[in-house]
Amino acid sequence: MTQIFTPAADTWLRLFMVGGLALSSGGLVGLIGFAHSAYETSTDVRPHQPVPFSHKHHAGELGIDCRYCHTGAETSPQAGLPPTATCMTCHSQIWTNATMLAPIRKSLADDKPIIWTRVAKLPDYVFFRHDIHIAKGVGCETCHGRIDAMPLTYRAKAFTMEFCLDCHRDPVPHLRPKDHIADMTWQAGTDASASGEKITAHEGIRFGQLTHCYVCHR
Ligand code: HEC
Ligand code: HEC
Ligand code: HEC
Ligand code: HEC
Ligand code: HEC
Which residue has the higher pLDDT, 56 or 197? Predict the structure, then answer.
């Protein structure tokens, strides 16, 4: 089948339709209310997972770095979820017979990945990438909250447009030194904007351009 619209044109068409529909029916408030209560923005929901994986245990108590399992966060658009082999680096030695881990052993034996239920996901008309945020000094915790304290994973912050824009208007106070990117307890000093200023000085943040619609809708 020939494609009439480019993916970008398609995104714009859908945005236009969503926006236009809402405005023409006077239902913008209703629409936003709907969008915000939908699965995509829901916070605090702990969905059923094939294995009850605990960040509290692994990232918090055992202190495993986020990037050991989410290897793409620094280098690609997607942080990515770990393959079964990553779990097996430890679980071929410890807890080898636990019933809780049976799906992991089956996944390895059958060579089929575990299908996790996603909690942090944007609607597909929003463009996002991890690498640029990490490179410019936005920490995991700023967007995902205290993952290291979660026995079961949930979305700590609603990914509303306002959430993104709040920072895109002035990222400086939210930036941190790169060696604290995955640090869950890092706190800005008393003068956050001065240290942010220092960080950005040599990073070349494109001030004033980050709120343009095409940054996130393309
Ligand atoms: C660096 C080592 C390491 C890796 C990698 C690892 N685990 Fe664990 N895991 C442990 C240890 C240690 C325990 C705890 C045993 C104890 O103290 O009770 C554990 C316990 C568990 C438990 C039992 C419940 C709990 O949290 O106490 C589950 C379920 C589990 N891991 C799932 C996973 C999955 C799924 C992966 C891959 C995404 C994974 N683990 C990767 C070390 C690891
Ligand atoms: C031992 C491996 C491991 C480590 C270490 C780890 N994670 Fe995870 N992470 C997982 C697995 C497995 C899932 C999918 C299951 C779940 O949601 O709990 C996941 C899910 C997530 C999700 C939800 C993704 C989605 O859309 O459903 C976020 C956000 C996340 N991790 C962030 C972090 C952060 C931040 C850290 C460091 C503090 C971290 N993870 C450390 C294995 C790990
Ligand atoms: C600027 C905000 C922001 C920062 C910083 C951030 N994330 Fe995310 N993360 C998101 C958003 C938004 C999504 C959903 C992306 C989507 O659906 O396209 C996401 C999705 C994820 C997922 C699900 C799988 C994926 O790649 O989509 C994991 C795992 C994750 N993030 C881990 C991390 C880790 C680990 C860090 C720090 C090294 C981090 N994130 C830093 C906003 C952020
Ligand atoms: C805490 C601050 C912060 C938050 C929250 C945040 N961003 Fe960003 N974002 C940045 C910074 C800093 C940059 C890099 C700016 C630069 O390079 O000039 C960036 C860059 C981007 C870019 C890349 C622009 C390009 O042209 O390459 C996209 C896309 C983006 N953000 C989307 C999002 C979306 C979508 C969200 C919400 C889910 C979000 N961001 C939340 C700080 C943030
Ligand atoms: C920094 C990223 C970012 C920028 C810049 C941005 N948006 Fe969004 N936009 C989002 C996110 C994230 C959502 C999804 C909100 C949700 O799921 O609740 C969204 C949703 C929307 C929606 C769907 C309706 C709604 O509110 O849920 C429309 C329409 C929209 N944006 C239009 C625009 C227009 C027009 C601009 C330029 C003035 C713009 N956006 C700039 C991130 C952005």
Answer: 56
